[in-house]
Amino acid sequence: MKFSIYGRFQLEIEREDDAWAVYRLGTGLRVKAHDIVIPAEVEAAELAVFLDDVFHELAQPGESVEPL
After folding, report:
1. Residue 27 and residue 42: Cα distance in Å, rounded?
2. Which band of pLDDT confidence, cut at 50, 70 and 90, is reported for residue 23?
3. For 5-15, what is each residue's pLDDT tens digit?
4. To which H or E segment does residue 21 belong?
């Protein structure tokens, strides 16, 4: 699943074994984001809300984390 974080950057999140793996996406590259940890018990349907909780300091009024 891919998400736009307030239009500033994009993340790709995949389930690997019993954990979430997070990757930062850029022009032609995909880099593991070791600094972003999503608890295994977070459901796929809850990821956008979880990411919004983590990155809310970056948001301007009316902005949200958007699935791509």
Report:
1. 28
2. very high
3. 999 999 999 99
4. strand 19-26
H helices of the chain, in order, are: 47-55
Q: Distance between CA 47 and CA 55 in Å, rounded?
A: 12
Strand partners, 13: 22
**pTM of full prediction above 0.85:** yes
How far is the C-alpha of 59 from the C-alpha of 53, rounded, in Å? 10
Tokens of 57: 């300091």
Joined tokens for residue 11: 């993340």
- Total residue count of the chain as it appears in this document: 68
